[in-house]
Amino acid sequence: MAPGQNGDRRAAIVRTGLLFGLWTILAGTGVADLLVGTVVAALAARVSLNLLSPGPHRVDPATAARLSLRFLLQSVLAGLDVARRAFDPRLPLRPGFIVYPTAAPPGLFRSAFTAFTSLLPGTVPAGPAPARGADAGGIVYHCLDVDAPVAAQLAAEETALAGVIRDE
Amino acid sequence: MTIVPALDLFVAGVVLVVAVWTVAVRNTSSAVVGFVAYGLLLALVWVRLGAPDVALTEAAIGSGLTGALLIGAAARLRAGESTVAAERPGVPVRLLIAALATVVAAAIAGVLLSLPDPAPTLAPEATANAGATGLGNPITNVLMAFRAMDTMLEKVVLLLAVLGIWSLSPDAAWGGRPHLPHRAEPDAALEFLARVLTPVGVVLGIAVLWVSADHPGGAFQGATILAAMWLLVLMAGLGEVPDIGRRRLRLALVVGPAVFLTIGLGGLVVSGAFLSYPQGFAKPLILAIEFAMILTVATTLGLLVAGPPVAGPPAAGSAAAGSPARRAAP
Amino acid sequence: MSVLLDLVTIVMVSAGMVFFLAGTVGLLRFPDTLTRLHALTKADNIGLGLVVIGLVPQAGSLRDGLKLLCVWLLVLLASATVSQLVAQAARREGDSS
Lengths: 168, 330, 97
Fold this sequence. Notes:
The structure holds three protein chains of three kinds.
Chain A lengths: L5 H22 L3 H21 L5 E3 L1 H27 L8 E5 L7 H10 L5 E6 L10 E5 L6 H13 L2 E3 L1
Antiparallel strand pairs in A: 1-5, 2-4, 3-4
Chain B lengths: L2 H22 L3 H21 L3 H26 L3 H6 L4 H23 L9 H6 L9 H9 L1 H19 L10 E2 L9 H23 L8 H17 L11 H24 L11 H25 L2 E3 L19
Antiparallel strand pairs in B: 1-2
Chain C lengths: L1 H28 L3 H23 L6 H35 L1
Helix pairs in contact in C: 1-2, 2-3
């Protein structure tokens, strides 16, 4: 596992650092804790590099922080949206499926996008669209309200996420 | 404060309701879901009883791992479920079952009611000798020092369980690999989780072992987390179960009990008693045993879920290189 | 100061409870698996987040507070995955029936 390129080495260092941080949260910061922690973090980083190769993707920390804030806000909105519908005596739901056409090929970005959008108001990703037909390549979303501008909202999220995880 | 006892009573009541529902429900899958929920609620009860170590074990083993085993069993039995459900035993058989169940329940109730009050306990002795090992968690003291023999035999029993499952393999498949049922097309969402969560789970599992010296935790609970990560990687289609004939796998299966036994026999030489730790070295020796144990237990639990080998071993020379999956159980 | 922190805890945990209640009401009232999935994931995620934020001031140390946040993040990750898996399964079932 000799990281040949700079990107690989960078990924190894960043991941080891993050996992080591997690270790100190869980195990503490005594001398013995830190010594064992370096070994465990290196081991877990190796697992991580095996499962998720550094590849062409690069995560940009500054934009990621901004996206986290946006995500928090959206989570609150999602919760409020569901709460409003659940408590409303008329139960205002117009559930249904829509297909969101995306150019993203299967891979890390697409998976991160579906995971991210599963926490947004009114949408739950329900798998890829059928491989044949006009919708091929798209993602099926189940919506609480099919009349809402779901596709436009998803497109905005895709743009936002593309600023964080981008192909280099 | 009367709200806390009221909440405790409420949780206890819910545990009973879920238990009855789990037994009464006709559908096997629903019963499994009920069982998992029951285990999690029981873990909550253990926390309320001030036994976080037991709660961790209940959540990890009782609910999580057993749940995974039961889901596998339910999926296997689904084909024949309607046939079995349609069969109704005759009246004499049902009467006999009712009588047996009543006798067992009455016996348990009788034993419970005749327990001496206060119950006999070794807790004061365990607390009084806590300083002997240098560990701060009395549970770990009991498991790894005062009753180390029980703990060691427990791990050997697990190993026997794996052998029992392997013995179900057809002759042609012996030495081959178990097949964990996962969907033919890789699922993107599950794959994403496996790629992102597994390293975190590795840190978490080992941390649960590491902190057990002084806080709730332990090798067994940590090993369950590691096994869960391994199974996640396997189910996401990112790795294959290794051939059961592989030497590294066999080594991982025996290293825990082997280290335990070696240190135990060393105690016989150095301190004059089997499984006794020399003064001042108890803590590092116990940690060495636990680190060896976590590897063995994680591998064992993963193999328990994976089941018997179904495909024959690869022809010599074509053995696959170490898959990323193996690393989930470091 | 501690009164103020207690107040933050009470407000945040209570708000979190409202979201949990909303999620449960939705689970009972919404018509099918997929809509119930919305109710559970969205409402419970933010409900748990608020409970965690409310409990952080009560944590004995920075480490304990960070541990609580880790719990929330792990639940979010699990929830994001499981909701997709359940939605796919429900969609397949809907297709076949």
